[in-house]
Amino acid sequence: MADDYRVLNRANWDERAAMHVAAPEYRVSRFLAEPDFLSDVVRFDLPLLGDVRGLRGVHLQCHIGTDTISLARLGANMTGLDFSAASLAQARKLAEQTQSDVDFVEADVYEAVSALGAERFDLVFTGIGALCWLPSVERWARTVAGLLRPGGRLFLREGHPMLWTIDETVTDRSTLGYPYFETSEPMVFSDDTTYVETGGSIEQTTTHEWNHGLGEVVSALLANGMTITGLTEHRSVPWNALPGRMTCDEHGEWRMIEHPERLPLSYTLRARKN
């Protein structure tokens, strides 16, 4: 496959970076004002994440670094990796402003081992909304295993593949509009908005995305020498994934208004390298 998806997606994320820093959902002002403030995402993760003090961690697809800095505030020695130079510029600025000792490295996620070194990390953290930008979950799993030392662990929270199949433009019922399983060709979208409140629109609108079934994710990790230690499905997701059918709780998590028991919205997967 040609790397056109990287060029298109990088341009889109470069444009999002400054918009997301200004968006209330990322709570940058609270990071600056409160030395112990954690992102909503990491705060949600805490019960399953466990103690990360002293761990050498890498956050893949770290974007503007709010989750990476949150993990550092919990005591991990963090590196953030992303392919968007504009996102990393914002991440480094926030780390400097908050006096956070975090390294940020510019590289594509599939090139993480060559960029950072093999078997150097105790923890690989992948935040929500990351895997959909990658065409091959097997290659991602190989990267995760390559980064971890033996006994090191993966923590992944992701949008549920069932949620990704729902056509969000149909607002009166749940309609399957997109693939559940990984496909060779991407889903192509054109959208001048992003998933948070902003004061403008995106000019680089075209993105390429993929879904990855839950079995595909698990199988890819098992095939690359990982042992699954936990799999939890959640009834919430940290963005308004289905407008008009969701409500936001006090923790920034969005839930279905009607029949929340019918659709898993996100999942947390934990694994350890053999």
From TrEMBL:
<dbReference type="InterPro" id="IPR013217">
    <property type="entry name" value="Methyltransf_12"/>
</dbReference>
<dbReference type="InterPro" id="IPR029063">
    <property type="entry name" value="SAM-dependent_MTases_sf"/>
</dbReference>
<protein>
    <submittedName>
        <fullName>Methyltransferase domain-containing protein</fullName>
    </submittedName>
</protein>
<dbReference type="GO" id="GO:0008168">
    <property type="term" value="F:methyltransferase activity"/>
</dbReference>
<keyword id="KW-0808">Transferase</keyword>
<dbReference type="Pfam" id="PF08242">
    <property type="entry name" value="Methyltransf_12"/>
</dbReference>
<dbReference type="GO" id="GO:0032259">
    <property type="term" value="P:methylation"/>
</dbReference>
<keyword id="KW-0489">Methyltransferase</keyword>
<feature type="domain" description="Methyltransferase type 12">
    <location>
        <begin position="59"/>
        <end position="154"/>
    </location>
</feature>
